[in-house]
Amino acid sequence: MSNARRNFVAGIVTLLPVVVTIYITYIMVNFIGGGVGKFFKKFPYFDKLPSFVFPVIGLIVVLIAFYITGIFATTYLGKRIINMGEKIIINLPVVRGLYKAAREFSKALFESKTALRKVVLLEFPKEESYAIGFLTTDKVWEIDGEKHYNIFVPTTPNPTSGWYLIVPESRLKFLPFSVEDGMQMVISGGIVISPEKENIFHHELFEEISKTKKKKE
Fold first, then answer.
1. Distance CA 40, CA 48 (A)
2. Which residues are CB-contacts of 32 (< 8 A; sequence separation ≥ 6)?
């Protein structure tokens, strides 16, 4: 019986990362390439292809478009045209706010090597429920004399979506984990964590729960 259990666990450990990777890839392909892929259904012969092919075609087209745009954006002419386009967009009342936010988010996510800086534990989404979050910037908000931090709480197993929170320092517990360790915990739903870090996490969690209960008493 122990051999059967060991083989079963070994199978889960082997296949689960593959399944999670395929699932996240499937979500990204459908999200990014789905809309573009539908455009190709209007062309002759393409309508005879299986439906699952179109998101893949759309994703390939989008990636090629990103690459070509990147090449163009690094040239002198490309920089001039992009700067002119940005000046026009920034002068538009409503659009400029959305554009600036999207531009800064893109730079932080893809150009900055420290977009996510530290791993934190916080009470979310309700009392006595806790979540793993990430400090997104060193900028500190002073509200009523207390420091507040910008925190991103990702979802499981797709960490590209989540919640942006401004949390007071007293409600945060900074964990001695790397961003990679924290992200592995989130994506795996707490399954992937070393025994050493698991002990640290349990200690920090129980300490935070005890501190919260004492405040309420």
1. 11
2. 58, 59, 62
Q: Are residues 79 and 148 in the same domain?
A: no
Do residues 105 and 135 share a domain?
A: no
Are 122 and 180 contained in the same domain?
A: yes
Tokens of 214: 């004492």
According to DSSP, residue 32 is labeled I
β-strand partners of 123: 130
Per the structure, the count of domains in the chain is 2
CA distance 31 to 147: 37
pTM of structure:
0.53
Strands (E), the chain: 118-123, 130-143, 146-154, 162-168, 172-174
Question: What pLDDT was estimated at residue 105?
Answer: 63
- The pair of three-digit structure tokens given for residue 126, joined into one six-digit string: 């309700």
Contacts of 123 by beta carbon, 8 Å cutoff, 6+ apart: 129, 130, 131, 171, 208, 212
pLDDT band at 120 (very low <50, low <70, confident <90, very high): very high
Peptide bond into 195 cis (omega under 30): no
Using pLDDT thresholds of 50, 70 and 90, give the confidence band for residue 114: low
Q: Say if residue 79 is in the same domain as residue 163.
A: no
Domain C-terminal end among 60, 79, 110:
110
